[in-house]
Amino acid sequence: MTRQRWFLILLGGLLWFTSQLCAQMYTVTDLGWECAGPGGAAYHAFINNNGQVTGGGGANPPHAYLYSPPSGTTGAITADIGTLGGYPTLPYAINSSGEVVGSSIAATGDTHAFLYSGGPMTDLGIHLPAGSSSTAYGINNNGQIVGGFTTTSGVTQAFLYNVSTGMPSDLGSKIGGANNQANSINDNGQIVGSFTAPNGLTHAFLYCTTTIAVCSKGSMTDLGAFISGGNVNSWAYDINNAEQVMIESDSGPVIFVYSGGEIISIPPPSDASAVDALRMNDSGQVVGESENPISGFFYSGGTTIDLNTLGLSILGSPITVQLAFDINDSGSIVISGWPEVYLLTPTTPRQITIGSITGWTLGGSAEELVWEAKWQGQPSYDKTANTNIYDDFYAIDVCQGPTSPCKIEGTTTPIVVKPIPYWTLNGQGFCPPSGCPSGQFGQIVFSDSNISPVTVPVGPAGWMPNSITFTPSFAPSGSFQYTTNPGVTVTITTPDGIVSGPLPLPPPQLPPGEEPPWLGGAWYGGVIATIDGRGYGQCTWYVANQRLAQGLGIPYPSAYTSTPIDASYVPQQWDVIDFTTLHTAIIISPVTKTTSPGSNGDTLITYNFTIGEMNVGTCLPNGGACRFSAWSEEPSSVDRPFVITRSPTGEQSVQTPIYSLDITKTCNGHCPATAYFH
Question: What is the DSSP string of 70-86?
Answer without folding.
Answer: -BTTB--EEEE---SEE
